[in-house]
Design brief:
Elements: E1 5-6, E2 9-10, E3 14-15, E4 19-24, E5 27-28, E6 34-40, E7 53-56, E8 61-71, E9 76-86, E10 93-94, E11 98-99, E12 103-108, E13 118-124, E14 138-141, E15 146-156, E16 162-172, E17 179-181, E18 184-185, E19 189-194, E20 200-206, E21 220-222, E22 227-237, E23 242-252, E24 259-260, E25 264-265, E26 270-271, E27 273-274, E28 284-290, E29 297-298, E30 304-305, E31 311-321, E32 326-336, E33 343-344, E34 348-350, E35 353-356, E36 358-359, E37 368-374, E38 380-381, E39 387-390, E40 398-408, E41 413-425, E42 432-435, E43 438-440, E44 445-450, E45 457-461, E46 468-469, E47 475-477, E48 482-491, E49 497-507, E50 511-513, E51 517-518, E52 532-534, E53 536-544, E54 550-554, E55 577-587, E56 592-601
Parallel strand pairs: 3-9, 11-16, 18-23, 25-32, 34-41, 43-49, 51-56
Antiparallel strand pairs: 1-5, 2-4, 4-7, 6-8, 8-9, 10-12, 12-14, 13-15, 15-16, 17-19, 19-21, 20-22, 22-23, 24-27, 26-30, 28-29, 28-31, 31-32, 33-36, 35-39, 37-38, 37-40, 40-41, 42-44, 44-47, 45-46, 45-48, 48-49, 50-52, 53-54, 53-55, 55-56
Amino acid sequence: MFALPIPSFVYNDICINGTAFFNNSTTIASTDTLASFFWNFDNGSPFQTSLNGSSTYTQAGVYNIKLVVFTTQQCSDSIVQQLTIYDAPQAGFTVQDICLYDSAHFINSTQPPVYGTTDEFYWSFGDGSPVDSLQWDATHLYALPGTYTVSLVVQNAVLQCADTTYADVAVYAPPQAEFTFVNACLNDSVVFADQSQGNIVSYLWDYGDGSPLDSVINPLHAYGDTGIYNVWHIVSDTNNCVDSVRHNVQTYPLPVSAFTFNNVCLGMPNTFFDISTVSLPGVINQWTWHFGDATGVSTQQHPVHTYLSDGAYEVTLIVTTQHNCTDSLMQDVVVYPLPDPDFEAPPEGCALFCTPFTDLSTVTTGSIAAWQWVFGNGQTSAVQNPVMCFDNTTQTPVTYDVALTAYSDVGCEAVIEKPDYITVFPSPEAGFTLYPPKADLLEPLINFSDLSAFATAWRWDFGDNSGSSTEQNPAYSYQDTGWFIITQVVENTYHCFDTATGTVYIEPDWALYIPNGFTPNNDGLNDLFQVKGYGILEYEIYIFCRWGQLVFYSDDMNTVWDGTVKDGKSGKIVPQGVFAYKINFTTVTHRKYTRYGHVTVLGTEPY
């Protein structure tokens, strides 16, 4: 019998895409020799008949490697051994382009091998920095902008089968944020001007006062309070790279314009007092006054200004701080008109000359509220329309100056003076005596003696509504009784008058006439009985027939008896005869008398 060969080979497991080498170690026990070999690599490659075999594997897996050995005696035997082809991890990572100063984040997406495990990994960031083998997901900060090729090498724990992947990461230069501004006064807008460099596509402003962010390129912003604000300007470019810058912006306090003044009368200077204020750090250093009358401006802090005409003026004060912050205040200033004083009065008269003065003063606005008169005779008055008396103790005319000061209801005053306005002529002095001071109607003649001085004409009124005279020393007989007031009016060459009065008493007298008969026959002749007289104050008459019966009574002297019976019964004509009467009367001397007598009635039927 022939001996069989003892097939055997040695080899090593390899990594994918590697070539496996098989070293034939077949033996045979006899003197027979090995004649041929057949290798089956289980990967679809052709059989090999060489002593030692080799084959390249492109897929990981476990392969059954078979060796068939033939001797020269055509005896054969085979052996099958398993070959493991290890695959490398599938290296992979993702990264986003970044902006300078931002870290690049590398997200490792390596897939583990089918056979074995991932053991090691190596990051190379392409900027010359050391290889990083510590981070699974790497983070790297680039110092300069540019495009960097980054590699990741990963290895299988078995045989160190490796895979490498590459990716480019762009590191963009960021924009350069910058802005300019001008500090502003409160309520004024701060003007921000963007000065950023780069391909800017968006702008953000944080004004530092809690207001919403703003996206305007060159914004305006008004702050609600004074102070210092941290303003951030944030810009981004077409690569979404962002830069920011911060500046301190200050808003300055506004001054508060204020001033005091007094309304004045025309012609009086008006002092304007500045009382404007400003909070720190503001300092008011400029004042501009407009007085409203087109007379220019003043830059004094407390100016004095005199208006040339009355009226209302709009006065404006503009105050400015060292930061050019301003405020203005307008107030109406009133310049009161002066009164236009005037008056009139009868300008001349005789002493004592008492004349009324009529105020004619006016004022364009308001009213005249007070008056002060100076009459030139040492007398004054505060009455609007006074009456003033002027004397002249000489025998020639005397003149007086009169001045009136008028005061308006706001205290403005003006004076008018009229020299020699009043002329007072001297007056005569009336006076007389009369004799006798008492008379009666029987001798009523009174003689008057002139005692006047400086008179050239006389006029007498004797007080009985009928008697008068122009003689210097007249005499007058009164026709009635009683008290009479005699008035003497004297006149001088200036037609000035004086008056003197006196009284005279004409005592009363009385008389009573009683007829002794009448004929009541209606023939129109002596038909009535009437008692007449004068100086009788009270009167009663009683008429009786011869038998003592009362046929007539009256208490009025003007009542007549017509001959009829007045007893209230018959009313017939009394018969012819003699009738007795009784008359009681009181005279003007207040003495009482009684008269008795008879009256004869004729022309009627006798008793």
